[in-house]
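User: Okay, second chain of the day. Same drill as before: sequence in, structure tokens out.
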Amino acid sequence: MSDDERVYSEDDNMMVDDEETALEIAALQDDETLIQRKKEFINHKAALSTLVEEVSQKNLDWVQRCDITSMSPLVVENTEDDLDRELKFYQQALEAVTRAKVNIKEAGIPFSRPDDYFAEMVKSDSQMARIRQKLLDQQKSIQNSEEAKKQRQLRKYGKQIQQEKIKEREDKKKAALDKIAAVKKRLRNANTGDDDDFDIDVNSDDEVKPGSGFVGKSKNGRPLPNKKRQIKNAKFGFGGKKRGLKKNTAASTDDMSGFSVKRNKGSEFTSASKKGKAKRPGKTKRQRTN
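Assistant: Same drill. Structure tokens below.
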């Protein structure tokens, strides 16, 4: 590198350093001015009053202004209570609407929409139909959900009732079995001669109650049924042994009271050869006769 070039490079470096120093000084001065600068607020009451008079509409009628000032100031005890604050706003707005309605009626200006007034809808009929269908679908889904919930509760209640019925039947069955076991125990005690807790009124066989259907006693001391019952028993039977009733015995074999000579000599007892019908002659014999 030559001497001239070296001199130029040193000069350039010095110029860059000077520029950076100047920028740093300017930045420090700006910060000082920003820190020291303060905004001054001036309340120009006269100018503000003049502007208020210029924009004031006191000379106009109320129908053109439509402004209402609340008669009672808005007082909210707890500003953090959203419900109380919104209720105060609602009461204030309701008061303003009531007073505005009276003023409009006094001015004779109609404000209610006529019954035959049809305003153009902002949304199209197709869009409103889709919205209506969406609302209907939502309502139907809610109804289906409620119905399913109700059915689940009914099934749960039905299962509970079924379990109660089963338990009630089991309790009744257990009580009946306990009673039967108690009666069997008393009968066993009675058979063994132990008469504790066994009090049964047994009528004597010697007594025949009137109207009981018995007219007397048999040889073994049992009561006999009436004549009508005896006839039916003799005709139809009254239980007992059924097997071998038609079997021959020595007495039935020796009994010939039912034998009739006349009946036995009749045609129904003759041999089949004597009373049988003549057979038809064969084909050859019939041809010869012809």
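Residues 125-191 form the longest helix (67 residues).

User: Thanks, on to the next one.
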